[in-house]
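Worked example 2:
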Amino acid sequence: MFLTSGYQTASNNHGQSPVGTPSIIGMDNDVSTQLALHLTPITNAIGYEVQILIANVWTTVKFSSQARTIILIGLTTGTVVQVRARALGGSTGESDWSVPSSSIVD
């Protein structure tokens, strides 16, 4: 005999719709070999993934729970880096990647 509560099963994914795609609104070189990345906050995002382009391959360098300032460390002084980000969460698990942005590392 199979017993049931009568309730439908519930997903543990709390987002009812896909999360939006963040935009890179700035990158600062306040400290040598570091970049401070600023993204548009996305409603219902549980975090953000950041990648940089290294030898023509996008490599994840940081996961962050907030978008206001994400510090990227250990970068090479004098190099031009391309950075992109995406929001995590929602019904699909992640957003599309942002438009890449470039900066020179001081």
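DSSP finds no helices and eight strands in the chain. The domain at 24-101 is CATH 2.60.40.10 (Immunoglobulin-like).
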